[in-house]
Amino acid sequence: MPGLPIAASVRKNTSEVLETISRVLEPYIGKLMARTSAAAHCNDLGIRSVTVDGLQIEALLEKLGLALVIFLGKDKAGTVVDDMRKAIEALGEPR
Question: Which helix (H) or strand (E) is 32 found in, with range?
Fold first, then answer.
């Protein structure tokens, strides 16, 4: 069962979110691909500000999850997306 979506009102630092996503993805797709894919999907979604809200985070996680299905299969991709979501939720609010 997938985790609950991050609330729309949540705000996080974009660079911290991307670093967190990369850290979670790295064991599965390697360091370079983890960083590149997170940044590319962010760019595709038009996420360019210093902070992101919960809706932007969920859109990013959805795009990453769809791409991960190719490499990891549906079940494992879902688990990795949930791990990314939990790690992002643990980040503090931007200062």
Answer: helix 31-44
- Please, what sign has the CA dihedral across residues 42, 84, 82, 50? negative
Measure the CA–CA gap between 1 and 21, rounded to whole angstroms. 20
CB distance 42 to 60 below 8 Å? yes
* Cα within 13 Å of Cα(95), Cβ side: 1
Structure tokens given for 17:
């979110």
φ, ψ (nearest 5 deg) of residue 7: -60, 140
Q: pTM for the full model?
A: 0.90
- For residue range 39-49, what is the model confidence (pLDDT) as tens digits? 999 999 999 99
Tell me the C-alpha distance between 84 and 21, whole Å. Answer: 6
For the segment 9-68, what is each residue's pLDDT rounded down to a tens digit?
Answer: 889 999 999 999 999 999 999 999 999 999 999 999 999 999 999 999 999 999 999 999
